[in-house]
Design the sequence.
């Protein structure tokens, strides 16, 4: 794992994370992972070696579903870290982008600014 300190640099490109399409276990801590868990893959798109959110240091990030261009744009603006989330599509036999992991404070700001409430927000 390359764990650089990508603290201050805005828009530091981080590799995407993946939504598992079958159950697995974290390669590092052996945590059981349900399908649709968000994980970091070690190399490329091989699901045999996956890291859970906490091992991948993504615990403090919140998932934002794609679909609303304005929201996505704002999230990128407000969040220091933006990580693309990919999911395997059985239909297309390829990975497709399903959303972003961003900082919860960015989502707070979007809710406030657009006066909306996202459903199913993860609790922190
Ligand atoms: Zn783990």
Sequence:
């Amino acid at each position: 794992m390359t764990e650089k300190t990508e603290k201050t640099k805005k828009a530091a490109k981080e590799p995407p994370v993946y939504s598992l399409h079958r159950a697995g276990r974290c390669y590092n801590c052996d945590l059981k992972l349900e399908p649709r868990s968000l994980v970091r893959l070690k190399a490329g798109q091989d699901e045999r070696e996956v890291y859970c959110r906490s091992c991948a240091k993504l615990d403090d990030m919140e998932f934002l579903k794609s679909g609303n261009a304005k929201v996505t744009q704002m999230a990128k603006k407000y969040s220091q870290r933006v990580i693309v989330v990919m999911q395997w599509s059985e239909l297309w036999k390829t990975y497709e982008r399903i959303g972003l992991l961003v900082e919860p404070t960015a989502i707070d700001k979007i809710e406030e600014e657009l006066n909306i409430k996202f459903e199913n927000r993860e609790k922190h």
